[in-house]
Amino acid sequence: MDNIIQPVACEILDIKQESKQEYTFKVKTDIRPAHGQFLQLSIPKIGEAPISVSSFGDGWMEFTIRSVGKVTNEIFAKRPGDELFLRGAYGNGWPMETFQRKHMVIITGGTGLAPVRSMLRKFEQEPDYTKSVHLICGFKNQEGILFRNELETWKNHFSTIYALDNENFPGWRKGFVTEFVKEIPFDTFDDAYEVVVVGPPPMMKFTAMECTKCGVPDEKIWLSFERKMSCAVGKCGHCRIDEVYVCLDGPTFNYTRAKYLVD
């Protein structure tokens, strides 16, 4: 029986700078996650951190990481050919069967684009999987924009709105993502649609509220939480909110449940 908490050393194949503070690490591994799952990345004697999978394929996986503490700072010191230790994948991914043959609305803020990137790639590569894809992506400013090449490519496949919170930039609109929810033609979807919202907790809260104002039922909204996940197997209790363990019950949640997950 496999040890679900045993880290495995994996070679770093490539490192790509995405923005001023975020880098994508491509790692050699046979782990095959579901879209929306996370892994624990670690460095011996330093610590570990939960990171969502931003893309994956046969024999490799990508993690888009922001340097925000001791562990991620040490990861940023790594180079191709060095090793990272991985364990997982953990948690519940996106309900892909529910999304199939639906109109998909995906709304992200900042690094919230990373946990849906692999799913967007699937929708791009398999255009018959969904009826349509409406993508709203927001970043604080142009220095924080992730996956620039893919954002351009997705314009050719999806209906897109790209926005910066407080900055004018060619090809981008100015404002918070919440301001653009009303532009989604929900009334044309014949009730065959689902909404995914990922970003900082306040962004998810107010974006979900905007969706409900547009008549979207709670059960059609899905969120992803990244909250203090440590052991990833429901033993340490760091990610617990009331009776919910985010690492086990999430990180993806339906809004009917997620709207009550308040610290």
TrEMBL record:
It comes from the Bacteria. [2Fe-2S] cluster binds at C231, C236, C239, C247. Keywords: 2Fe-2S, Iron, Iron-sulfur, Metal-binding. InterPro entries: Cyt_c3_hydrogenase_gsu, Dihydroorotate_DH_Fe-S-bd, FAD-bd_FR_type, FNR_nucleotide-bd, OxRdtase_FAD/NAD-bd, PyrK_electron_transfer, Riboflavin_synthase-like_b-brl, Sulphite_reductase_B. One of its GO terms (molecular function) is metal ion binding. Residues 5-96 form the FAD-binding FR-type domain. CDD domains: sulfite_reductase_like (cd06221). Transmembrane segments: none annotated. One of its GO terms (biological process) is pyrimidine nucleotide biosynthetic process. It holds the Pfam family DHODB_Fe-S_bind. Binds 1 [2Fe-2S] cluster per subunit. Its cofactor is [2Fe-2S] cluster. This is Anaerobic sulfite reductase subunit AsrB. It comes from Hominibacterium faecale. The lineage of its organism: Bacteria, Bacillati, Bacillota, Clostridia, Peptostreptococcales. The gene is asrB.
